[in-house]
Amino acid sequence: MGKRGLGVGGWGLGFTGSLCSLFLFASVAGARVNRVVVEHREAPAFNARSFGKAGQYETLSGHFYGELDPKDPHNATIQDIGLAPRNARGMVEYSGTFALSRPIDPTKTNGVLFYHVVNRGNGATSGSEDGRISLVSGWQGDVLNSDKRQVLQVPVATQADGKPLTGPVVERLIDLPAGSNTVDLRTTGYVGLVYQRPVSLDTAQATLTVRRSAAETAKRVAASDWAFADCSAKPFPGTPDPAKLCVKGGFEASAEYVVSYTAKDPLVMGIGYAATRDLNSFLRYAEKDDTGTANPVAGRVKWAISEGSSQSGNFIRSYIHLGFNQDESGRIVWDGANPHIAARQMALNYRFAVGNGAAGPNEPGSEAVLWWSDYPDEARHRPAAGMLDRCRASGTCPKIFETFGALEFWYLRESPNLVGTDAKKDIPLPADVRRYFFPGTSHGGGGGGFNVRAAAPPKGCVLPANPNPESDTMRALTAALVDWVVRGVEPPASRYPLLSEGQLVKAVDFPKIPGVASPNGLVNPVYDYDFGPEFRASDLSGVVTKEPPVVRQVLPTLVPKVDADGNDLAGVPSVLRQAPLGTYVGWNVTAAGFDKGKICTLSGGFIPFAMTKAERVSSGDPRLSLEERYGSHERYVAAVKTAAEKAVGERFLLREDADRLVRQAEESGVLR
């Protein structure tokens, strides 16, 4: 792949130089990103691939720097910004990494800035045949620095007199390696994080408990039997280390450990929302810096759209809810947004926040407003509110696609989003929101294909992995969102389960399949947590004073109704779901360890149909076999073709994906 100077390619940057040259530009008055340093340029990018009419792309990457006025009302919702250090101008500073990909030929750009919210720092830009500009950046202030991740540097908040702020912190540790005696608190989640620094290494001032089953009462580990230390090279009590935990005699692999301590020096994590707002706003609106150097996409951005999956989708929901889609000049930032497989809000904007939650015990996320329209949360004694209230007031609401699958109901607590905390009736959607449910999918969907043989179970689960995909439908919906934003073309009508239609239930009528237990009882409950009087639950902001939280009540939770095969009804089914080879479920069962028998977190499952009637009858499976359903390979391919054509006609599948799926079905071994 070739490398070219920063001024080559027709974008009019007015600067050329070697790869190591720095390209600097600052914001115009009003925007708060004041400097961007492009440290690398790859042209052509993506292995020199050409993207249709858009041609080849180039990628710029480096750092951006910004500052925030803590007195500006646009920043007032950021927890502890008033306690962050300030520069000589009275501003709070931050910096982050970014990458931007654009067509090498600027005339091939379609005017859309597409912001991909990274997940725990992971994510990349992409090229597109429609010529969109692709952007990623760091937003999560507790992700450890890495060349492979997008990161954000945010300040530590202190008391007004400069003394440390302190507060309670709790961390749950399960499924630890057998025989291990040391745990790194920075790597116990999905990615390396900046740990919450303890005030003292004296374990008499902290608590460690252990239990071997959920039915057992947790027992306190004696302070003399554990340490904030590293015992990997030196026997217990090891070498003191505030980022590590060591237990005398080692950890039990199948036990649950919970460490509670007082932490100090909280990061101002909510700056992640403002940093995202200001980088997007700069690239969309700014023309040049104070010295006259051009914005790298100046004059080329007419619309901006964001998308993010799971944690990243929760970020989008909270970003909109907290009012950050209005920049400091009062302008709209994103015209469209697609939070995908995101059932909660992002627990980012409170003191000692950890941006790494996944609906586990005692984790905040579902305490916030979860619905787009105003809904009176009477079960939790709160007034009517909706996630669009702030952007409605400022006239800066984006058009929204909300997309999710079955697992979001079973594990990520999707139910209140649709029917509220009392689960008594459907909450209507606003006119500028579309909702699409993908029945029978795992978190983010499976790999697709038409394989009659079940794959291996996901790690730690019982049932085979669920192949039911979401990606084919998502490609079509992304195109529909762009059309809605850019051309005003009405998207497909919302498709999701409705309580009024009997499509949401408290318990599913699951078929009695040999070797498969009913999933009723597996659903992850929605708890009404009390984190203390200083925690603003509706905004997931403030200060946590009760850790772990008190459970006030368990809220009702509904899941999608299933058919006779155990497959979800309602929504936008994939082609594979319309021509099923088995039962595709949004749940799985944990095979071993502390959570054995409980829901297997983010993994769905697959239960294949018997091949023949004789095999089905012999096993006692009530579901029709493939032989009984389709009769022959040719008839199965015809069913796939019919499903694909229907999806294309409804705008839930692109033509090229429909043709590919039919070819895959023809080449498959189904009923060969």
The gist of it:
With 672 residues, the chain is of the alpha+beta class.
Task: Sum up the structure in keywords.
single chain, 672 residues, alpha+beta, 12-stranded mixed beta sheet, 4-stranded antiparallel beta sheet, 11 helices, globular, disordered N terminus
What does the model show?
By secondary structure, the protein is an alpha+beta fold. Strands 1, 2, 3, 4, 5, 6, 7, 8, 18, 19, 23 and 24 form a twelve-stranded mixed β-sheet that branches. A four-stranded antiparallel β-sheet has the order 9-17-11-12, with no helix packed on it. Strands 10-16-13 form a three-stranded antiparallel β-sheet, with no helix packed on it. β27 (535-536) and β28 form a beta hairpin. The radius of gyration is 26 Å and the shape is globular. The model is unreliable at 1-9 and 13-31 (pLDDT under 50).
